[in-house]
Structure formats: structure tokens, C-alpha cells
Amino acid sequence: MLDQIKGLHHVTSMAASASTNNKFFTDTLGLRRVKKTVNFDAPDVYHLYYGDEVGSPGSVMTYFPFPHIARGRQGTGEVGTTLFSIPEGSFGFWTDRLTKAGAEGIKADSAFGENRLHFAGPDGDGFALVEVKDDARKQFVGNGITEDHAIRGFHSASLRLRDEGATAELLKFMGYQQADAQDGVTRLIMPGGNGADVIDIETMPNIARANLGAGSVHHIAFAVENRAKQLEVRKALMDTGYQVTPVIDRDYFWAIYFRTPGGVLFEIATNEPGFDRDEDTAHLGEALKLPAQHAHLRSTLEQHLEPLDA
């Protein structure tokens, strides 16, 4: 069993409108845009990052907004719901705020002894807020949200699978431990993790596979401290039979990718070097930052990409 992985690093999804996406995450959810860059493989498309003040691993939601992309179809083989941690006693505030913002699918429930508030993002993305006691992670405060209510980072993510077996074994190999199971959901927890420590597997044997589109999670990333730890994980996964990509430099972290038995794309990302490698902390996410191979496209991209509010 591996011990290098420390919980979630980021979750990357698809969107149809960059400006709508930016407004939702900064204005409605009160997260900080910590980086405004472009897709490495499609530089005419933004890659937007939202998180806490510095973009700590375990707090960062990222998006590829492809203009006019069709909405995804929910199903198995994908991340179903991304859940954020909020302080206890925050439900009233968030219910009110989400309702005023016009969010759809607002519904309260509980699972595994935790209160949850579900809602949909602009493209039908599945989200929930979870009241967590004594989450000590420092939150970003702004946009009318105080420390008493602000999101502290990810709580968990759920995977929708037709069969949990092989993916559950993979997660256990990655260092997760089964903590509970109820109503067709198996909960796995990363002991001593970074706060974004939980993965729930929803088994749905009769549900068709998902189709990727706006509102779909493209991949889910797990955090390791540095490149040396990442190489250890890569070797262990390959020795177990997984087809893992070479290490890819993503400017703000190094990444490796592999497809899970249930169809979900997993990434292992480093905590280094971080989002302040090319901007100081006070100005994260303000300027358009381009990967070196796309720097020559700046004038074209600045004219093409949709303007975003600060």
C-alpha cells in the first residue's frame, strides 16, 4: 500500500462559458481565482483555477470552458458530486445565498452522519456543501462571505461506477481505507490526509456510462508532496499493471495520469511549485499566464479569449 498520497489535489471539469463559470465560483461560492491560463492542448480555451487564498492542494476547482460545448450526460464512469467543506451552522447562510443566485437543485440531506446541501453549477455540475466541525484549513474570505461561512476546501468527491470492486481496491492501494458503507455507497478515507480526505463510491450497476461535456468532471487529481514521491507512485502503479503517462510539467504542478478500472481518469499531482511561481500571492489569477510553448500566441489569445471580471 502506498503512503505518498495525501488526499485530493484538484478537480478539473468542463464548462460552456468562461464568464459564467468565473462569476459563479468567485461571486456565488466566494472562492478566489488563483490562476488564469489556457489549456495546454487547446490554447484558445481558458484553464481557470479557483481555490483558497494561495490555491492550496485540496482546495482547487479548475475548469476548461469550451464555448458552446454540449452539456454532458450523467452516468457511470465519472465523478458524480464534488463536495466542499463549510463550518457547522452555515446551512442557512448558504441556502439563502444559493437561492438568491438562482442555483438549481438545492436540497438538504445527510449521509454518514454529516449534513449536506446539494446544488447544481451553471452547467448542471453536481456539488454539495458539507458541514464539518473543526476543519482548521484557512479559507479565502471575500465577496460578502465571512470566516463563519466560507468554504475551506474540498471535503470529498463521489465516483459513480457500475461495479466498485476494482476501483475500491485501487484506492486502498493508493492509501485509502474503507470507513463505512450505506445505501449503496462505500466511503473511503485517507488517514492523516490534507483535509480533502474522502472518496465515496456510488455503485450503479444499471446506469449507462456518462458522456463528457459541459458540467462533467474531466479528471480528479490526488496530491503528493513532490516529484520524488510522484515517481515512487508512478513506479508502483506501473508495477501493478496500470498504464501511466510520463511526468508532464503543468507549470504549477507536475502531473501523471491513468485510467481507472471504472473509467474515471485519475491524476497524481505534486504540491510543488505552486501558483505563486509566476505571480505574487497578492495578485494571483489577475493576469493571463501562458505556458512557454504558447507565449507567442499572446496577442491573438488576448483578442480571442472572453474577457473576465477580476
TrEMBL record:
Domain VOC span(s) in chain numbering: 7-132, 153-271
Superkingdom of source: Bacteria
The keyword Cell membrane is annotated on this UniProt entry: no
Listed Gene3D superfamilies: 2,3-Dihydroxybiphenyl 1,2-Dioxygenase, domain 1 (3.10.180.10)
One Pfam family named in its UniProt record: Glyoxalase
GO molecular-function terms, A-Z: dioxygenase activity
Keywords: Dioxygenase, Oxidoreductase
PANTHER family for the chain: RING-CLEAVING DIOXYGENASE MHQE-RELATED
Protein name listed in UniProt: Aromatic compounds dioxygenase
Lineage of the species this protein comes from: Bacteria, Pseudomonadati, Pseudomonadota, Alphaproteobacteria, Hyphomicrobiales
